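Researcher: Quick test of sequence recovery. Tokens follow.
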């Protein structure tokens, strides 16, 4: 049977780019994009799109049956900063969407699930440097609590019902094609846009706040690689630690200044500082490298070069 993929949350920062990459691999017609709101023109014009509330199991099932979907990628979620403002809504979206999709797999409507976790599952009592796959997990944010609970639901459905669900603990994801929404690591995306538009940026985290980060291209490649790995090689059915780079606002600002010498950064920490301070500073992903040969490609320098080159090109074509 041909694989047909449904992306829930396709209009979001990761969902958007994941959808485009999957359409290049599987063909546009076999990758159904969906979200609670329509996506950008590329998304809407390059293949099928359906409006779906990701917490509504029946809505998802209708689309699964309409297109004979075999795999679901569940990217719909409320991220850390917004989740602190709306705890109940965040819990409902982050958990009930997962349980809906897990049940569809348990009932054999679909064969495979991808669901993203986050380094937010770790908390203030977790060792900050090179955090191992198995460590103290006492998250102090709603988002982290929902992702930790979600990981153990995934593990339960795999062990008890044989559901083939796979997950990655994403670090902060940096992109230029689509902006994030409501994350604590979003400063590392906004800074590039502000550097080009105004040559300055006011950062909502303090200058030495070190966080685990990753370029979108690496995150998308890791996701697809994990989903295409033979099931017997997947040893972690909660979620895999995933890592690439780790940097501070000061370090990313210095990297940008190599390309835009006049760039200035100011620091005005807000409520997101407390969230960032509760997370690890660097992550060990040795298990992902061991079990399915994960290898990131981008470091801070090559990521910065790629982002600024693409944003400058995009701005010059928009001005034409
Ligand atoms: C957030 N970008 O900031 C997400 C991510 C590790 C951070 O989970 O909430």
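Model:
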């Amino acid at each position: 049977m041909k694989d047909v993929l449904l992306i829930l949350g396709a209009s979001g920062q990761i969902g958007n780019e994941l959808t485009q990459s999957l359409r290049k691999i599987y063909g546009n017609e076999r990758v159904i994009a969906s979200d609670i709101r329509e996506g950008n023109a590329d998304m809407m014009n390059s293949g099928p799109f359906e409006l779906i509330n990701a917490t509504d199991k029946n809505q998802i099932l209708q689309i699964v049956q309409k297109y004979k979907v075999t795999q679901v990628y569940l990217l719909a979620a409320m991220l850390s900063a917004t989740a602190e403002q709306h705890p109940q809504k965040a819990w409902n979206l982050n958990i009930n969407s997962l349980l809906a999709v897990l049940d569809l797999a348990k009932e054999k409507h679909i064969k495979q699930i991808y669901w993203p976790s986050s380094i937010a599952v770790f908390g203030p009592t977790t060792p900050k440097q090179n955090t191992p796959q198995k460590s103290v997990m006492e998250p102090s944010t709603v988002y982290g609590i929902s992702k930790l609970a979600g990981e153990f639901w995934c593990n339960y459905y795999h062990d008890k019902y044989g559901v083939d669900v796979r997950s990655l603990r994403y670090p902060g994801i940096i992109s230029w094609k689509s902006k994030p929404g409501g994350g604590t690591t979003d400063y590392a995306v906004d800074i590039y846009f502000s550097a080009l538009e105004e040559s300055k940026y006011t950062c909502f985290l303090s200058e030495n706040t070190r966080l685990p980060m990753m370029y979108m291209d690496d995150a998308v490649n890791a996701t697809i690689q994990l989903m295409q790995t033979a099931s017997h090689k997947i040893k972690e059915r909660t979620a895999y630690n995933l890592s690439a780079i780790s940097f501070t606002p000061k370090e990313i600002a210095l990297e940008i200044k190599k390309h835009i010498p006049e760039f200035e950064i100011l620091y005005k920490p807000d409520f997101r500082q407390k969230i960032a301070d509760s997370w690890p500073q660097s992550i060990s992903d040795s298990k992902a490298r061991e079990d399915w040969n994960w290898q990131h490609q981008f470091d801070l320098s090559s990521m910065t070069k790629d982002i600024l080159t693409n944003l400058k090109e995009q701005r010059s074509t928009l001005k034409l």
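Residues 5-172+215-241 form a domain with the Rossmann fold fold (CATH 3.40.50.720).
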